[in-house]
Amino acid sequence: MRYTIRKAHPDDFHDIAKIHVLGWQAAYADIVDNEYLQTLSVEQRAQNWKRYLRDDTNRIYLAINEQNQPVGFSSCGTTQTFPKNVRPEDFPYKGGLLALYLLPEYYRQGIGTALFTRAAQGLKKLGHNAMCTWSLEENIRAQAFYKSMGGREIDEEMITIGPGTFREICFGWDEL
Question: How far, in Å, CA of 14 to CA of 16, rounded?
Answer without folding.
Answer: 5
